[in-house]
Amino acid sequence: MSKHDLSKYTNAGYQPGRNAFVQVMWYITNALFFKSSCVFSYGFKRALLRCYGAKVGKSVVIKPCVNIKYPWLLSVGENTWIGENVWIDNLAQVTIGNNCCISQGAMLLCGNHDFSKETFDLKVESIILEDSVWIGAKAIVCPGVKMEEGSMLTTGSVATKDCLKDGVYQGNPALKKK
User: Fold this and answer.
1) How many alpha carbons fall within 13 Å on the CB side of residue 92?
2) Domain count, the chain
3) What is the CATH classification number for the domain harbouring 74?
4) Which residues partner with 140 through β-bridges?
């Protein structure tokens, strides 16, 4: 493993898709209405996300203390639940299907760093959760993972690779159990 010189790190090549003003406005909105423990109506939260470019279906439930990095890189289907303390770190597109459940404290992480390079370069990949996926509490979905329809990631598990249709995945790294 190489040594890192973080003084050489730059993420200048990464562009989140909106100008600095929109990003700052989103950070304020996110802090006030999403990351807050105050309870705001789900309809209000859905409307705010749409104002910032998210595609959000009907009857999406977004609980308090949810952190969303960039709503313009988010698509959520209908009847999906996003639980307390979920972190959607969507440096790339995150697509969540219909009737999904993302349980408390789960993390969807689109970014990582290339530890093999001295400069610790940023790497980003999209995440896709197809319809009826369940992400258990405190579970982590890593960059580039696709969870096929009906798959489940159990509590505290870490999905580093794709999860097949109707499979139950458990552990770190998550392995198919059923």
Assistant:
1) 16
2) 1
3) 2.160.10.10
4) 107, 158
Which string of DSSP letters, residue by residue, matches 89-126?
A: E-SS-EEE-TT-EE-TT-EEE-EEE-TTSTT--EEE--
- Is it the case that residue 22 has pLDDT exceeding 90? yes
Residue 88 in domain:
yes
Structure token digits, residue 57: 């279906």
122, two tokens: 């940023």
CA–CA dist 158, 140 (Å, integer):
5
Q: Is residue 10 part of a domain?
A: no
The reply to whether 82 falls in a domain is: yes
Q: Residue 96 forms beta bridges with which residues?
A: 76, 129
Q: What is the mean pLDDT of the chain?
A: 95
Q: What is the pTM of this model?
A: 0.94
Confidence of residue 1 (pLDDT cuts 50, 70, 90): low
Phi and psi dihedrals of 72, rounded to 5?
Answer: -70, -5
Residue ranges making up the domain that contains 72 = 18-176
